[in-house]
Every structure is written in structure tokens, then in C-alpha cells.
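fyi for ur records
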Amino acid sequence: MTDHTNTVAVQDPSSSILGLAQDVLELTQDMTKYFQANNIAAPTFALSSQDPPDTPDYRRLHASLKSRLEDLLHLIDGPSKWLRAFCCTGYDLGALQIALDFDFFELVPASGDIALEDLADKAELDVDRTGRVVRQLMTYRIFDELRPRMISHSSTSLAMRQDEDLRSVVHYSLDEMLKAAADCNVSLKANPHESHQNLNPFVTRHGVGIFEFYKNNPDKARRFAKAMAGLRKMDRHLDYLLKDGFDWSAIKGTVVDCGGGNGHISKSLAQLYPDLNFVVQDSNAEMLSEGKESLPDSLRDRVKYSQHSFFDPQPVTDAAAFLIRQCTHNWADRDVVTIFKSFVPGLEGSSPDTPLLINDIIIPEPGKWPRHQERIVRQVDMVMLVNCGAKQRNEAEFAALLKEADSRYVIRNTFDNGPLGLLEVYLERS
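which gave:
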């Protein structure tokens, strides 16, 4: 198999369409060989086709191939045509939001088809706009029309029908989140030099912060919870860095999982490392209760739950490690400094070898990653800007906030070769 893992992320401006096409052919052949060698069916548009494997080898091939394909498509379109298509995607998303709000995905049967008129009748929407919406989505292979005026599922729309968590990811993104994003310019013009939990585009659009919004809208809160479950399923491979990047077998004792929600990460680590115990801390009593209820009997002696805010001084001492995962990105810099300060009492009461593990996106330097991979983490950064007045950070920004919290903080190891990074931080002692 050809090694494309060290490909420079930024393509040479003189890259030719023929050279890119030749790369695409070679990489596609490599991908086909990978499927064959691993007895994996190549993806098709058939309803029975499965998602490609989520393995490191496939992700490397996918990254290289997608980078070439995107560059090739950009070149053959040219700047004007590409921009026209890009700026019109909002209308495509509008069609998708209609399909979600009017339950198209559930109303179209899993097998067989439904007459357009019947779909409109069941959706309680006129036939004209039902047809226009569903046919717009068909241009993205969402739904199908194999017989005139008979609507059936494509593999993509069927996945939305069968997986409520996936459907929730898409629906919440196009409802409260996209509406907030549409007010970015209004919010930033009103507050060009400040943003935080109570000052951001989400507040501009909805009148309250995101946490208060879900407290006031329980139906949307339930959908948001399902969406987060869906994202965890889609991003399951991100857990490998936390599990493999740090040598968990080298420590003994109790790991404190701060802001750990229902403890799904602690449960996973506890199953892998029987010598470790875990304390899951979160300020949300409902999340803690959910975690306790779903805890297997085999882990009840080793995984405990405690209500605690990571803004308050850490009460646990003599810990083997402190972990904070995908939490700092929800907060502005001043709040993150407070969070990092709160760990100091716990670290001072533990061994000098006790690490603070910060498991979050580490934004790469521009051009270090392939564009489509960098785009994903920068999209998440924009999500934080819109919804929390917060941000994703690069390593230097993390280091500066740690030093502001306590000058004794030092980053000893950084793992940033994937969408979710890991900082291994220690509190130096004199």
C-alpha cells in the first residue's frame, strides 16, 4: 500500500488537475486493496451498504483521498462557481430542516416507497412544497425517486430514519444552533471585543445562554442529549488517544474525572485498567444519577460519583491523576483560568507525579493538517464562538492560561496528531 501519511497538508499552488486526478486514481486503488485485504465490502449507494471502517489505516487513506478530491473539485469549478455553490448551501440546509420538522424521514417507509401525495398528506404540508423540498434533498442523495412521484429512502436518509441519535445531531444543528449562527454578525458588531457564556450569538438570538435555554425548553434539552449521544457514537475513535496516548498502566490509585457527566469515559477506562479506581465529578445531578443507574455491577466498587463544580477548589487529594475532558472549550479564557486554579489544591495534596490530563481539541497551526481535517476542528471552534462565547485553543494558548492560573504548571507531553488532543500537565514543586 502506498504511504500517503506524510503528505504536506497545503497543496502546491501549481498542482495540476491531471496530477490530482492521478493521485485520486492511485489512492482509490489503495483503498480498494485495503477493502479486499480486510474482507470489507466497498461502499455503494445501495440501502444495504455499510459505513466504511473506522480504523487508523482507513482514516489515513480517507484523509489523503479526500484532500485530493476537494482540491480537484475546487479547481474544475473555479473560484466563482465554487463560491456560488458554497453560499447557497443555506437553502439546502433549509430543505433538510423542513424534512426534519415535518417528519419526512419517519413517514417514508424503511422499505418500499410512498406516493408524494401521501407523504404530503401525512406531513400536513402541501404537495407542491413537499415535492420541491424532497427533490432538492435528492440532489444530495438524501431520499430517492425510483418511480415517478414515489418517494423512497436512500442509504443516507435511511440512516437518519433508523438512528434517532443521528437524526437529533442534524436536527439540533439546524434548529437552535444554526439560528444562533445566523446572528453572528449582529452579536459581534454589538460586542466586538468581548465574549463569554452570557455574551455570544446564541444569547443574541435566543435571549438566554445555552444552559438556561435547555433548562427552559425540556423537549429541546432531550433532543440535545440524544444529539450528544449521537456525536459520541460518531466520534468513538477519538477515545483511542486518551486510552493509548497516556500510560494508564504506570499509575495506581484513583483517577478524578472532572466534569465527567455520566462517567462514560471512566467506565471505559475502568474496564481496561483494573488497578485504577475512578471518581466522576459533575455539577449536574441528573447526569450523575444517570451514570449511577447505568453502572455495571462489576464496576460499582471502583467507579464513584460526586457532585462538584470544576470552578470550585478540588476536594480530592492523593489522586493518581486528574482528568478534564472536552470541558475547557465551553468557557472563555478568564473562566478556564479559574478552572485550572481549582485543580491546584488537589494537585498540591497529591504526589508530584500526579498529572492533570486535559483532553480536548488542540487547534493545529495553519497548514499543518489537511484542509478538510483542519476544517472540522475549526468548525467546532466556531460552534464554541456561537453558542458559548468560548473557543478551541492551540497548545500555546493552553500553556498561557495554565501559567496565568499558576506559574508552577508545566506541560510535559502533548499529543495533538488527531481531532482530539491530550495535554499532560504537572504542578512543579520546589
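Confidence is low (pLDDT under 50) at residues 1-11. thats all i got for now
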